[in-house]
Amino acid sequence: MKAAILYKPHELKIVKNIIPTPTSSELLIKTAYCGVCGTDVHLFHGDEGSVPMIPMTIPGHELSGILVSTGENVVVDPNYFCGKCNACINNKPHYCENIKNTGVTINGGFAEYLVAETSQIHKLPKNVSLLQGAFAEPLSCCLHGLSKISISSRDNVLIIGGGTIGLLMLQLCRYYGANKVSLIDVLPKKRNIATSLGADNTYESINMISNEKYNKVIECVGKKETCQDAIKVCEETGIILLFGLTKPEEEISVKPFDLFKRDLTITSSFINPNTIKKAIAILGTGAINVDKLIGSIISLEELPNVLANDKLRMDGKVVVKYDL
Ligand SMILES: [Zn+2]
Ligand SMILES: [Zn+2]
């Protein structure tokens, strides 16, 4: 089979590998689609993902595929939790002492086949396509983030950033019945997509917001400036979710007195503990349009170039498609 192996930073090679053999607790999956995530870009450049990468691992954690044994369409929850350690017992499985991650510490979806533990494999309902299935993982991360700020019909939500995550957040806030959902992006194209997905207002920057008030602000860019914008623009008593991944060394300046005066809460979230089933269920309701999020669909051979060249990822989600 063809597989992309990250030998060392910036050295991702497409090689011929043997098809892996599943153990008794695993199943073999023929990969259908695998999305390219910001984490894959970080790993390509030698930065840490959710955990440090094991060299020579096949990356890719946003995948869908077909179970070779039964022909069923499935997705893989990339995070393996042991269920026995202190963190797992204390309901924070994403801090599992024995955590394993598909595409970071074990071989992932940038290969024609992969094996996964049966416990990590989730069947897709008939009305969810394999392409939609490749969005279950990023959607499950968004769901964990939103669980920290619980969206309801009382909320006016502002999303900063119209990338894949921002546009998923927008649709989820609509799904949860938010009173108003607006989005900021510098690119007119992204603002148009946001409008077509149900955004009430779109803005080029926070300076364009005049009288509108937002009590929930979700930062999905991961830059210092946009994190500070999120705090600045939030209505008093509101909650700010810092969701975009900043560089590890990035710092922002916050005036505690300002938080006090405006009674603000700042929160964040890490990966997707046990939210993949919910993500699949929401995909099944038809509430999430993924077609408008896709920038390009590529072959595995194009992946090294796409990871190396930021411009090739500017138009939206890049998804690797395999011949089935
Ligand atoms: Zn991801
Ligand atoms: Zn554990």
Give a quick rundown of the structure:
By secondary structure, the protein is α/β, with parallel strands linked by helices.
Q: Which spans of ≥5 residues are poorly predicted at pLDDT below 50? A: none
| CATH homologous superfamily annotation of the largest domain | Medium-chain alcohol dehydrogenases, catalytic domain
Shape summary: globular
**What is the CATH architecture descriptor of the largest domain?**
Alpha-Beta Complex
CATH topology of the largest domain: Quinone Oxidoreductase, Chain A, domain 1
Bound molecules: zinc ion
Question: Radius of gyration in whole Å, from Cα?
Answer: 20 Å
Q: Features of this protein?
A:
single chain; 324 residues; alpha/beta; Quinone Oxidoreductase, Chain A, domain 1; Rossmann fold; 2 domains; 7-stranded mixed sheet; 6-stranded parallel sheet; 10 helices; binds zinc ion
Can you describe this structure?
The chain folds into two domains: 2-140 and 271-321, Medium-chain alcohol dehydrogenases, catalytic domain (Quinone Oxidoreductase, Chain A, domain 1); 149-268, Rossmann fold (3-Layer(aba) Sandwich). The chain has helices at 38-44, 86-89, 130-133, 136-147, 164-175, 188-196, 224-233, 256-262, 276-285, 303-308; strands spanning 2-8, 11-16, 26-35, 62-67, 73-76, 79-80, 100-101, 113-117, 121-123, 156-160, 180-184, 202-203, 216-219, 239-242, 265-268, 294-298, 317-321. The protein is built from ten helices and 17 strands. The strands form four sheets. Strands 3, 4, 5, 8, 9, 16 and 17 form a seven-stranded mixed beta sheet that branches. A six-stranded parallel beta sheet has the order 12-11-10-13-14-15, with helices on both faces. The site of one zinc ion (ZN) has 6 residues, from helix 4.
